[in-house]
UniProtKB/TrEMBL annotation:
GO CC terms in record: mitochondrial inner membrane
Name of the protein this chain belongs to: Cytochrome c oxidase subunit 9, mitochondrial
Subcellular location: Mitochondrion inner membrane
Topological type in the membrane: Single-pass membrane protein
Organism: Epichloe festucae (strain Fl1)
Pathway: Energy metabolism; oxidative phosphorylation
């Protein structure tokens, strides 16, 4: 009784691994960008806008 052919298993596994890796990498990048980076950037910009407005009021 011959063993089953295994030639297509490596290709299917490779495609699955690449799909999972790229998909989870994309999801984590979006989580970082929209969950951490943009809120911190907006908070920083708001802080400096407020500081600039205060300095402009103090000059007058």
């Amino acid at each position: 009784m011959p063993a089953a052919q295994i030639s297509g298993i490596l290709r299917r596994r490779l495609i699955l691994d690449l799909g999972i890796g790229l998909g989870s990498g994309f999801a984590m990048a979006n989580l970082f960008w929209y969950g951490f980076h943009l809120p911190r950037t907006n908070a920083r910009d708001a802080f400096y806008s407020k500081l600039e407005a205060e300095r402009a009021d103090n000059k007058q």
